[in-house]
Amino acid sequence: MVAFHSSALDGVARNPALPTPLLLRLLACEGGGEGRPRQAFRRAGLPGAAVAVILAHPDPGARIEFAISARAEPSQRARLVDDPSPKARGALAYGPEWRDPRTTVAPLPDDVCARLLDDSVPSVRAALLDSPHLGPSFVVSLATHRDPAARRRAARAWETLPTGDRAALLADPDPEVRQAAALGECRRDARVTAELLRDPKSAAEALRHGILHRADAERCLAGRTHLAALAENPSLPHDLVERLAVDPDEDVRLAVSLRPELDEKRRMSIHFTADAHTRGDVQWVRDGLADPEVLRRAATSAHPLLRRTAAQSPHLPPDLLDLLARAEDQVVDNLLGVYHPDTPEEVLMRVYARLGGTFSAWMAETHPRFPREGLAARYADHPDGNYRRLAVRDPAATPQLIERLSHDPEVWTRQAAAEDPRLPLHRLREALHVPELASSAGANPALPEDEMTAVLERAGIPA
Q1: Angle formed by the axes of helices 163-170 and 148-155, to 10°?
Q2: What H or E segment, with its residue span, contains residue 421?
Q3: Of all residues in the chain, what percent are helix, strand and coil, respectively (each to 5)?
Q4: Which of 44, 227, 234, 348 has its CA 20 to 30 A from that of 372?
Q5: Ramachandran class of 226: left when φ > 0, alpha when ψ lies in -120 to 50, beta otherwise
């Protein structure tokens, strides 16, 4: 496995013990690469003085880093709304591109979003409408905006819109807005569904969600048109569901097997194949991830895709969590490790053991319930370096053990030890000058201030 080598400066930039004067010095530096570690601009809890330095930074790249920080307060990021760089305003409008699935990104204030939507640069407006972080009240307000793209965005949140706004969007002068509105309305109106079926661009989605006339459904069956989408339709007559349940197409049979009205016996009598690695995103279960009845039906089913979708709920009660933890399904294990706050230790350890070095393993290891006590005794001498690294997590690990692990043959174990505050100071200073350990040592909260200062000076960061 190849380690990512980065500088001591990168580590210092994310060090939680970095004093404010050094942070301000680091933030104020100009230039990219070594001169501007991105993590400095994405730290949590930046003081007001640091935010002021970022907002006044002459390099737009520095302001962009702050604009997409998932750790910054929305009210702080919002101060970029008048930034002279369209790229910075676009970054602010879209918001953080990546986030921990266990956390949510708070939306920008509605008035700030409104100003971004009126920005003179089209790319800024488009970034805002593409953002996954918009507040519900702002999305509703888009229904009456003069920009058709904004009204289309509002139509995607159809069920949250007032009746009057829905009617206006269905009669909108823009054909794309009308179509987006119709795709929302077709779930309750067969006439609207029939109109959408005449357009190849909207036919599949209308078949999947809309209220269907029987004649339209039979026409699709006869022409074998979008049958997998048709098989999901909640209004499909029972006899047509039964015909699709024995269709020669595997995707069609799988779609039928996931229908919500089926009892367990009928569901499992359908000959379907579910891929061993498919995550499972069954819509009616996803819509009910906070509904106890839906969760119980899905979690207790023998259908793997229903169980996997239920495993994405943080609201599983203890008995269902225990049931899924014993499901012997690797995908279920992965999802529980990501989404549930009370995932059992043994599940987290299974994920870690199987997928060490992957995103799922990282999510398991950073889970609040990942074990800590006893890891040093169990794993300090394990033949696999991925397990020796776990010994660093143990509160009972001694400074001598941490130092020993900082010389481990496995680079990830050495890096974990280099970042641990129990590492003896002489070894910590030494690690700052070892290429693969420099970043970890720089992030060590036990690093003395004079050493942090020396790192900045070696990197040419002006005082």
Answers
A1: 120
A2: none
A3: 60, 0, 40
A4: 44
A5: left
**Residue 356 binned pLDDT confidence (cut-offs 50, 70, 90):** confident
Reading the block at residue 174, the tokens are: 């823009």
Asked if residue 214 lies in contact with residue 241, where contact means CB atoms within 8 angstroms, the answer is: no
Q: Given this model, what pLDDT does residue 32 score?
A: 53
- Which residue bears the tokens 């036919």? 203
Q: Are 232 and 259 in contact (CB under 8 A)?
A: yes
Contacts of 393 (CB under 8 A, 6+ apart): 370, 371, 372, 375
Task: Report the residue count for the chain.
Answer: 463
Rounded Cα distance, 67 and 79, in Å? 9
Please provide the DSSP assignment of 227-245 as one string. Answer: HHHHTT-TT--HHHHHHHT
* Segment 171-208, tens digit of pLDDT: 999 999 999 999 999 999 999 999 999 999 999 999 99
Judged on CB neighbours under 10 Å (0-12, 13-18, 19+), 92 is buried
Cα separation, 34 vs 119, in Å, equals 33
Residue 460 has pLDDT above 80, yes or no: yes
**What is the pTM (predicted TM-score) of this model?**
0.90
pLDDT tens digits for 239-288? 999 999 999 999 999 999 999 999 999 999 999 999 999 988 999 999 99
All residues at 6 or more sequence positions from 258 whose CB lies less than 8 Å from its CB, including other chains:
232, 282, 303, 305, 306
Closest to 59 measured CA to CA, from 24, 35, 23: 35
Considering only CA atoms, which of 121, 99, 109, 39 is closest in space to residue 79?
Answer: 109
DSSP 109: P
Q: Give yes or no for a contact between 210 and 192, defined as CB atoms under 8 angstroms apart.
A: yes
Tokens (6 digits) for 450: 């004079």
Residue with tokens 């805002």: 128
Name the residue among 334, 294, 342, 345 with its Cα closest to residue 312: 334
Largest CA distance in the chain: 80
User: Residues near 288 by Cβ (< 8 Å), separated by ≥ 6?
Assistant: 294, 295, 298
SS3 at position 257? helix
DSSP string, 23-41: HHHHHH--SSGGG--HHHH
Tokens of 97: 């591109």
Residues in contact with 398: Cβ distance below 8 Å, sequence separation at least 6, in sequence order? 376, 422
Average pLDDT of the chain to the nearest whole number: 94
